[in-house]
Specification:
Purple Acid Phosphatase, chain A, domain 2; 10 helices; 22 strands; ten-stranded mixed sheet; disordered N terminus; alpha/beta
């Protein structure tokens, strides 16, 4: 096997010591600015403290042996991993559970490790705008780096939760940690520019562009000279059909054309170009059910990204898995689902009456508000591992993960049993079948058949 130097993960002892400093600093910053009010409810009922089901036992699998085999490379291989939405506020990099550490090791050993950053990294809790409080202090950026992430998309509906100043601090923290980013910037032009990573001992340049498609234009930049997000906004037209007037909704053509222009420019300065699309075609209200199918009008912007020159399109936002398409020989992941989902952490997000009876949660009959949990589909995701050699995509491996939905590790991903992995890969195959995609099960993960 060809030996070469890769990004070296921190030792456990070094990470523990370093995290202790970070946590101490974070605590000092938070205490200096805001003292949380005393909790007015019984915290024992919170989702992080109260179990409805017994804790899931470890798989008992020798993950170390499996990961060693998975990480075998050929001369010239460059490894890219990709995960979905990350809402992250509790340290997890030093967890001892092999079912979790194996995930982090795969990302740490990759050359490029991408995820969608759906929280703000800033020291200004007083700037919180909406109900959701997805924020960590700036020192927490080192925990993001510790799990292996070194490239993030930021065009999403939580990037501006703490306003322009919060976004500025997030960008500064990511730059300090050498985490490439795209989709948000100090100006609209910066938001539409690619984030780029060079791989050690390689001439190949990897770049990322990032855009958000929301069901309203509320995140559209009103002033291109101030902190902004790159968006593809909706268009709604009236259509006469069978004597009735109906509405048809889809992405705004001028925004899709602007994305194509960005891709053409970025293509000149990179070797492998990835485009991240954070897609909210409707709200996540459970009245809309499990949104595991991409509306045909939304498929347009994913395919147009490939037509313009993208090599990979990474979809996030629906919070569930969607299908995979190999379009003109290039992969489109319509939704990678969630990866880290710590959005109900009462000591960080100071409310937990099931997040004010969250409309995104199922509401079964005769079930207490305290016993409601996220739909199983929301707590399933995949870690994509792609092998690039000589600037060509040679392999796509799909590693299923699930996320704890109760207890002290709420929102933290782990690998699953082989039976669970098979069921998840079979589901992903069903979702991908309409696109003509074939996924082969390899005993504990899936592999996409490439043309």
């Amino acid at each position: 096997m060809h030996a070469r130097t890769k990004r070296r993960p921190l030792t456990v002892a070094g990470t523990v010591a370093w995290l202790a400093v970070c946590v101490a600093l974070a605590g000092n910053v938070g205490m200096a600015q805001v003292t949380p009010p005393p909790m007015s409810w019984d915290q024992s009922k919170a989702v992080t403290n109260r179990r409805v089901r017994p804790a899931v036992p470890p798989t008992g699998i020798d993950w170390d042996a499996r990961i060693r085999e998975l990480l075998r490379e050929e001369p010239g291989d460059t490894i890219v991993t990709a995960v979905g939405d990350m809402i992250f506020n509790e340290p997890i990099s030093t967890l001892k559970d092999p079912d979790r550490q194996a995930i982090f090791r795969i990302m740490q050993e990759a050359d490029i490790a991408y995820g969608n950053l759906e929280f703000s990294i800033n020291d200004r809790p007083d700037l919180q705008r909406p109900f959701y409080n997805f924020r960590t202090p700036r020192t927490f950026v080192w925990e993001l780096a510790a799990i292996g992430i070194n490239m993030v998309s930021m065009a999403n509906n939580h990037a501006l939760d703490f306003g322009p100043e919060g976004l500025k601090e997030s960008l500064r923290a990511l730059d300090q940690a050498s985490i490439a980013h795209a989709g948000a910037g100090l100006t609209l032009a910066a938001a539409r520019a690619p984030g780029t990573k060079r791989v050690q001992s390689r001439t190949t340049r990897f770049s990322l562009l990032s855009y958000m498609r929301y069901w309203t234009n509320r995140y559209r930049s009103a002033d291109p000279a101030v902190p902004s997000l790159a968006t593809i906004d909706p268009a709604v037209i009236l259509v006469a059909r069978d004597g009735k007037v109906e509405t048809v909704e889809g992405p705004l053509e001028s925004d899709v054309l602007a994305m194509e222009d960005d891709i053409l420019v970025a293509r000149r300065r990179t070797d492998v170009l990835m485009v991240a699309l954070h897609n909210h075609d409707v709200s996540h209200h459970r009245v809309y059910g499990i949104q595991d199918t991409t509306p045909p009008n939304d498929e347009i912007m994913y395919r147009r990204a490939i037509d313009a020159g993208a090599d990979v399109v990474l979809g996030t936002g629906p919070h569930v898995l969607r299908g995979i398409e190999i379009y003109k020989g290039k992969p489109i992941f319509y939704s990678l689902s969630d990866f880290i989902y710590q959005y109900r952490t009462p000591d960080k997000i100071p409310i937990d009456l099931i997040h004010q009876r969250d409309s995104e949660l199922p509401r079964p009959d005769n079930v207490s508000v305290w016993d409601r949990r996220d739909s199983p589909e929301v707590m399933e995701g995949i870690l994509v591992r792609m092998t690039v050699n000589a600037d060509r995509l040679r392999r796509i491996q799909l590693l299923p993960v699930v996320i704890d939905d109760e207890g002290p590790l709420y929102g933290v991903p782990r690998f699953v049993t082989d039976a669970q992995a098979r069921a998840m890969i079979e589901k992903l195959q069903r979702l991908s079948a309409p696109y003509g995609t074939t996924i082969v099960f390899k005993g504990w993960y899936g592999e996409v058949t490439l043309p």
